[in-house]
Structures are given as structure tokens and as C-alpha cells.
Predict the 3D structure of the following.
Amino acid sequence: MLHGKAKDEAWNNQVKEKLSPALQEEVFFKDAAWPSPFVPGLEYNSPAHGPWNIVHMGMLLPGAHQIYVCGANCNRGVILTAAEMNAGDRFSFVEIKEEDLFNGQMEELVIEGVSDILHKLPEKPSVVLLFTVCVHHFMGCDLTYIYDTLRERFPEQCFVDCYMDPIMQKEGLTPDQKLRAGLYKPLPMREKNLKQINIIGNDFPTREETELKRIAKEAGYTVKDITECKTYDEYLSMAESYLNIACYPLAKYGAEQLSKRLGMKFLYLSFSFDYNEIDAQLKSLVKEMPGCEMPDTSLLQKKCERMLKETKTLVGDTPIAIDATAVPRLLGLTKLLITHGFSVVKVFADGFLAEEKADYLWLKENAPDLKICATIHPNMRVYPRNSQEKVLAIGQKAAYFSGTEHFVNMVEGGGLHGYDGICELCLKIQEAYQTKKDTRDLIVRKGLGCESCV
């Protein structure tokens, strides 16, 4: 039996051995821990900026004006985002200086700063998205008092509490989840239209060819989506829908909250790559929408199989790398490609979604030597990016870290869904294999699909 220092050393060695795979920036899948393969710590930010941030998302709400209350360093990033997308006229900020942390007047700074901005705007915005930050948590700032006072001063103005607090990324709701919920807080209670449904929380419009939209529209339903609303009145009409559908994992919370508040039904139909799961989703959709008919999914599956076979014939054994920003169900896509003979060699992700546990276990058993690479580990700043062979990447970060010009330039699922989504992704893979892209130019542009002055 070991005692004292020897016991401590033995214990430390056991801990090191247990954690050693997770302390690296690249591990084999057989060694990848669930749900976080890597130990959190200092983080690296790659130059792949296609995924949307909270500024891009806030601009989806027609006529909204964003106000950020934070220090100059935090302000820099959001100001540049708004400027790059030529939306500076819909953006303002209140700067926090060092003395504001100690003078006991933080609430007054926010109230007076926001009031001054609103008095100077040329016209009243439809909604004010007011973003407070980490320092307000640290100081115990009375946010309730702030919003009560602002609503009393501006009774005709709609204010939505929003947050830019990355300290909350590791536990609880992230700023992304909070904003995807906050964007729908202005919707009022209205009489429900039993022929109208909403798709909630997406950054991109869902393709018209998806089974989801075709089933609804063929039965005479109207499908509403904030990404397609041009006016505030059109946005407000979303309150008349009787059913909310979330397809993006980070939108699930917001859709649930909206459904509870306005008495709507709710379905979570994520972009899955499993035929059985897609079938189950379509059945649940048809069940909640009277008059809708279930499509012949056997034909849809056969089409997917043809597209996958055609794509595999084209790309052959070309090494494929995939990253988690391209599609929300990264492991599901990886499994689909591997089971159809594709040579997936790397996946880039810093963690896994709870709904991917089954795919994780399958890959651990059937693809133990598949490499999983971090994207925010500090060592990734010097990760080798000069592959001597042709690599096909799915996602901007996979393209950057693989050093390839052949990549699918897509984030957050790109509006794909269901069987149609799988077929469309196959076409994108074929295009990426056959056509080079200017990776350096494309990935640095913030918010894929948004206007960019860069």
C-alpha cells in the first residue's frame, strides 16, 4: 500500500493517464470523451467567421435597433460586425469606462445612455434589442430596474433584454440561445390561424423543396419564418400561427418558450441524417397538421441512396474533413458518409450535442481511428495546414485547418432539412470536389449570407 508522497504521485499519474487524450488538440475517436473530448482552457479563435453571431441574428428582426452597453474592447467586435454588413444605422453603443465600475451609477449609465440614443435616432425603431454584458453580472446590476425605468420613459417603445455574456457559455443558456428566444418576445397574443405555422430560430430560410415545406404548402398551410419577414407587421403575424417548429438545436429553447407563452403547439425536427429519424419526424409533422399527407419515404430514401452513390463515385477515396459549424448534427453526417464508403478522416468539433449520443457510440465502435480535432485549443494556431494531398472539406473551419480550396461553404445547415437536405448536400459536395474556392477570401467574411463590405 502506498502512503504519503508516493500515494500522491501514483494518484497524479492515474489522473494524467485518464486525462491524457483530452489534453491534446487531436485525438482518436476511441479516446474521445463524451460530451467534451477536450479540457476547457485558453481558447483560440480561427479566422473562419462564416458562423453568425448575435449581431447578425439581431438584424433579422425587421426595424430593430441594437444597443450594446460594454467596454471599448468588447464593443470593437460588435461594431465591426455591424459595419461590415453595412448596418451601422441600426446599431448603437454605450461605452463603459473604468470609473463606471466603482461609482455606483451603472444603472443610471445604462438608462441615460439608452435614453440619449433613442432621443437622437431619426425614427422610432420597431424594437430595441438592449444587450448587457458580463460586467453587469459581476456587479449585480439591477436589470429589472433598468428595463422598468426605460419602459416607463418610453411607453410606446418595445424593449427586449438581450445578453452578450460569454462567461455563460459553459453552463446554462448561451447568449446565442437567449437571443434566439429574445427575438420572438415582441410577438403578442393573437387569435390563432389553424392554417399557419412558424419555423423558429433559423438564420437561413428553409429550402422550399424540403419535405417539411412541401407537406405544409401542398395542404394549403402558410409557413412563416423570421428570415423571410420584410416588415415588422409581417413579423408580428407570426403570433397568429398555431404551431412552432424548431430545426436548429440552439433554437429549441426559444421555440419552447414562445409556444408556452402564446399557447402554440411545438415540434422539434432537427436536421437529421438518419432515415428512421427523418421518417419519425415527418410522421409527427403530419399528425399535428390536419389535411397533410405523408410522402412515400421509400422513394425519397432511394433518391438519397442514388445521390450518395453518385457522389461517392465522383470523389472516390478523397480524404474528407467535416466541422461542427457546417451542420448541427456533425456526428450523424459523419456516420452517414462512412456507412456509404466515404473516406472521412477528421472531424473538427469541441463538443457534442446530447442528441448525438447514439451516433457517438456508433463511431466509437465502428470508426475508432477517426480523428477528432479541436477548433479552439491554443495549439490549433500552429496546426499543420499544408496537406500534400487533395482534401475535401465540409465547413469553413475544416477547410481552414485542412488547408484546402475544395470545400462546402455552409454554416448551420444552410437551410437544408430531411431527405431533400441530404440530396442537396450531396450536390454541394460534388461541386466542392470539382471547383476550387478562394478559401482565404471567403472564410474571413463575417456571417455567411450577410452583406459584406470586405
